[in-house]
Amino acid sequence: MATGWTGFALAMTVFTVSHFLPRLADLRGRMIASLGRKIYFSAYGLLSLVLFGWVIVAAAQAPYVELWPPLDWARWAPMLAMPVAFVLAIWGMGVDTSYTLGGKRTADPIQGDLGRAALSRHPLLLALLLWSLSHLLANGDLAHAIVFGGSLFLASAAVLLFDAKATTALGPGAVAYFAHTALFSLRPVGDPNWRRQHLRGLCVRTAIGLLLWIGALHLHEQVIGVSPLPF
């Protein structure tokens, strides 16, 4: 397999093409009709994770071009951010709004129970933002800056685009939607009705997120080749 800048460029190209190719000639629509939404998006999500893993490994194998020197304090950024990012990612799976990444397609953001969307209407995108920013701070070389900086830009743009889509689609109802959701807020936890309906599930998801973080922490060096520990 190609390494160096060639390998990095190849990985980035394949990963990028994989996101645009399904949109050509309505390929995604035809595959959803053939396989079903659940199978298609599960397979596509798995493929995206594999390809993105390739991008990360290829970035580590690219020539080191320093943009800023390694900073001791910056090595702590992923350690502090990633537990929160894993928890947010698990919160975001099937969150009760269709206007975000990983949201429930059938959710009614005006009449329905907003559930975890009251805590954050973009938990998966916030997880990606935390992952991107913390790793960008800890890696000051060109290849990693391209990967993490690009991910940071795309996640930020997606938040704005999804909110703009909600504003357009919901019309007058958008005011109530944004009033009852947040980019991130723990205020709903103080509502007894919300706690009664959602707190147990939220605690389970939080525990799963933390367990996955612990697993990723232990596997990081074997998979990525670099210890995530800041000491």
Give structural notes.
It is found in: Membrane. InterPro entries: NnrU_dom (IPR009915). Keywords: Membrane, Transmembrane, Transmembrane helix. It is globular, with a radius of gyration of 19 Å. With 231 residues, it is mostly helical. The two termini are 33 Å apart. It has helices at residues 4-20, 27-35, 37-61, 76-92, 123-138, 142-170, 174-179, 192-224. The protein folds into 2 domains: 1-63; 66-224, no CATH class. Helix 2 (27-35) crosses helix 3 and helix 5 packs antiparallel against helix 6 (142-170).
Distance between the termini: 33 Å
Give me the strand/helix succession: HHHHHHHH
- Summarize the amount of helix as a percent range: 55-70%
- Specify the number of helices: 8
Subcellular location: Membrane
Protein name: NnrU protein
Keywords: Membrane, Transmembrane, Transmembrane helix
Transmembrane segments: 6-27, 39-60, 80-101, 144-162, 202-220
Layout of strands and helices, then pairs:
Layout (H helix, E strand, L loop, with lengths): L3 H17 L6 H9 L1 H25 L14 H17 L30 H16 L3 H29 L3 H6 L12 H33 L7
Helix pairs in contact: 1-3, 2-3, 4-5, 4-8, 5-6
